[in-house]
């Protein structure tokens, strides 16, 4: 049982890196049809590809309205659009992560409950 919890906690440490890895794996260059060189050179490091500029979805719009309501006076002109774009990117990354990792009941963390006996009554 402890091994499963440990592996789950280790996977949590790598979870923030997973969306970047998924994007890099999808954007891998295809091999060219030209002649192969005699000396094989290491492939260049993948450059981070910009995400497609799409309009924020309804969830990102709703969360953007919450941000506007709470922090509207502190935001500058283009800040709210940037916040909505970042929210949409985070939602897309969360969807990719949800599709990539299927958790079972054994993967969930254990919630430890301890009953505390009542102490002496205060007067």
Strand content: under 5%
Give the overall average pLDDT: 75
The total of beta strands comes to 0
- Major sheet size, sense and barrel closure: none
Could you explain how this protein is built, in words?
By secondary structure, the protein is mostly helical. 47% of the residues lie in helices and 0% in strands. It has helices at residues 2-14, 18-26, 58-71, 79-100. The longest helix has 22 residues, at 79-100. The chain starts with a helix and ends in a 23-residue tail after the last helix. The mean pLDDT is 75.
Q: Key features?
A:
123 residues, mainly alpha, 0% strand
Write the SSE topology:
Layout: H1 2-14, H2 18-26, H3 58-71, H4 79-100
Helix pairs in contact: 3-4
How do you describe this structure in short?
The protein is built from 4 helices and no strands.
């Amino acid at each position: 049982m402890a091994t499963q919890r440990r592996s789950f906690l280790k996977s949590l440490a790598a979870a923030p890196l997973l969306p970047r890895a998924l994007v890099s794996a999808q954007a891998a260059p295809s091999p060219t049809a030209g002649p192969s060189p005699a000396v094989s050179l290491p492939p260049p490091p993948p450059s981070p590809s910009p995400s497609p500029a799409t309009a924020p979805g309804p969830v990102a719009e709703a969360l953007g309205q919450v941000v506007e309501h709470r922090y509207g006076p502190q935001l500058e002109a283009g800040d709210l659009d940037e916040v909505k774009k970042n929210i949409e990117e985070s939602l897309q990354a969360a969807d990719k992560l949800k599709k990539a990792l299927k958790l079972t009941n054994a993967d969930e963390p254990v919630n430890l409950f301890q009953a505390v006996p009542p102490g002496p009554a205060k007067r």
